[in-house]
Design goal:
Chain lengths: 411, 411
């Protein structure tokens, strides 16, 4: 590892017992098996330094485990996506001041480009020879694309019964897509096995996970900067493993500590689909333990039945005065169409879940509609077209004449 | 029309006879039926003014027919997409200094968001009550989404035999998708008929076309700014109607006149698919007239058999020392995979055409591989997945065990 390979990162530290080890391709504490995360020695960082940086996540490089020359390495240049004022959606839901953070316009159309960019930097610094992941969708796209651009061999593992269009959307970037006879859990287990057997493999969400996960902090940094260096009052975030929600909270806390935003209370809300809602169920039951479930929902990118960071999500949502809520698949579909028709943003099922949960939170009085609120859209609807293909379609089919059109009454 | 509704635009002027008329919802010269375009009285504009603007096309508002407060109107905030240094693609093609302007990361994943944003501004200033277009794809998405966000009624006309996924990708944004029994030409004719019969309809590519077309200039402005306020030596642009190519050239000329970049020679190249190559055929034959063709190519977003701006494309490519070239559908497919596997960019068939033509131009000695070159990617591969679904797929299908994986030889 070269000097400064991880910027201001100091060590890996255990989230459970606090044990520290040097930076390396590790993810579990050698003392207690708790999850490792990155600890930093941050220097003074100013708004002006950040604003002078590139228009992508590397403007925050001082706050990430990446080298100072990270922009020089070929990478996807993700992030700094739009924060859109959602006048129409806000009016429809009765929220005065609503924003959508739209990560569907990232290079491979989901927030995964952020985390994969940080994982790629770590893999490069560790001289990994293969960049890999198990995935059924967004992560596979992001890994295969980023690896292609960086010129590192990628191997992407998917369940063999994955729909053909989803296979194509990853296979176009890599000649080493591997179909595995089994479900996602089988694929995931195989990935851990290979990570243990092979030297020089960086599995983004396994052995370089601590670096990877830090990428989600950039969502939080961007929201604060795009609001004019302020934190929102309330934020609604989808929950799969729970990592994104915990990292956005971490980002807000870091910005406060660094003096980049003023300290203020904010409420964090988690969104799940009813068919995979272990965190929401625990939240509502008032318990601390997450009981794993077998997922059954159209929100496949949120379908993690045993979420690694679920207990931290519970802590954060409870401490900040937020909540965790879930909605049905039909409500997910409705919310996708609602967001498209009010703001012109076509979201995938994960975003439908988040917007639908926002709606339910207002209706049930759990979210204050007079406070400034941000909702995160993590991915693009083109990836989950089937979810709404029975919901929307032509209003009329006509002959190519003005008379035929006039008869529809649409004019 | 309110004061300043069109910014620094002065009048509509005929591209053929120079006749000027006041700004209004007109598109054909009343004297000679030539195409109208926007004439401006530009004030002094500085790089600093532009750089202080928003990170979207409105940073160039002083050079567009839009009001000074355009950012205040709800809009899709398109543009300022990535200009990526294409190290790997350049190496593969033998080009020393190659850039990809990647418009697939626009809000609805194509360059059409730029032109539609300008059309929407005009429609708003003309107090249009309906925002409409005939389209088979990218334009339909962009119009339906932008209209939804702006809160104006949209009506989008498509051929009734359009594939279901493409219908969904527009219908999700609008409750007034109209399927027309006929081909695209029939749909287009119907649109012109409705534009003539109904008051208050803004058909983006018909009666507000002069405003709409100006949006493509922003591609040229951005490339120059992102290169550090310089023009490239060579640029390769896809040709459908030919409007985009002529507008990028216009943008470069304006930047020179305004003193925002240094004057220098640059070569403009047009890219077509062999199955719809009327401009390329005329270029190669050394003639000035375009003979219309019946399109037959997978590059559907380029399939305009009678391109309105084809003759201007010929002029520009000849005057600048560029060329117009075409490639087969198989070469389009190969180029899509090539771009994905070298740069991690998944392009639609139009981008495949452009990259494939770039390759052919180098191979045939028509483009100088030692000069700085930009190639434009206009849209996202998720919209034309079928084009490559037979080209790419899993390298192996295995059982979920390390032994099964090791046997593939991929490690």
């Amino acid at each position: 590892m070269r000097e400064g390979a991880f910027g201001n990162a100091r060590a890996l530290t255990c989230r459970e017992c606090g044990h520290e080890i040097p930076l390396g391709p590790h993810y579990a504490c050698s003392e207690c098996f708790g999850p490792l995360e990155i600890a930093y020695d941050f220097p003074a960082v100013t708004r002006e330094q950040i604003e002078a940086g590139p228009r992508n996540i590397w403007r925050y490089k001082a706050l990430l485990p990446v080298p100072d020359d990270i922009e020089q390495s070929p990478n996807m240049e993700p992030g700094f996506t739009r924060l859109l004022k959602a006048h129409n959606l806000g009016r429809t839901l009765g929220i005065d001041n609503l924003w959508v953070k739209d990560d569907s316009t990232n290079p491979t159309n989901s927030f995964k480009d952020r985390v994969v960019a940080c994982a790629l930097s770590a893999a490069t610094e560790f001289h990994s020879k293969v960049f890999a992941c198990p995935s059924t969708g967004n992560l596979a796209n992001a890994v295969a694309a980023a690896g292609a651009r960086a010129g590192i061999k990628t191997v992407v593992f998917i369940p063999s019964n994955l729909e053909k269009p989803k296979q194509v959307n990853s296979a176009v970037y890599t000649d080493s897509l591997v179909a595995v006879n089994g479900n996602y859990d089988d694929v995931n287990r195989l990935a851990s096995e290979i990570a243990g057997e092979e030297d020089g493999w960086a599995f983004v969400n396994v052995n370089v996970r601590p670096y990877y996960a830090e990428g989600s902090k950039t969502l939080g940094y961007e929201i604060a900067e795009q609001l004019g260096w302020r934190l929102p009052d309330q934020i609604v975030i989808p929950v799969a493993s729970g990592s994104q929600l915990t990292k956005v909270h971490k980002a807000f806390q870091e910005l406060i500590k660094l003096g980049l935003v003023e300290e203020k209370p904010y409420k964090v809300y988690g969104a799940q689909a009813e068919g995979c809602s272990p965190v929401s169920v625990a939240y509502k039951a008032g318990v601390d333990a997450i009981r794993p479930v077998k997922p059954d929902t159209i929100a496949k990118s949120l379908a993690i039945g045993n979420p690694a960071d679920g207990i931290y999500v519970l802590d954060i949502c409870r401490e900040t005065g937020g909540a965790v809520e879930d909605i049905t698949d039909d409500q997910v579909r409705e919310a996708i169409v609602l967001l498209a028709r009010t703001e012109g943003i076509f979201t995938e099922t994960a975003g439908g879940t988040t917007v639908g949960v926002l709606k339910k939170l207002v209706e049930t009085g759990q979210l204050d509609p007079t406070l400034e609120t941000v909702v995160i859209n993590t991915g693009h609807g083109l990836k989950t077209l089937d979810a709404v293909s029975d919901q929307v379609g032509p209003a009329a089919t006509i002959d190519p004449s003005y008379a035929s059109f006039a008869a529809t009454g649409i004019a």
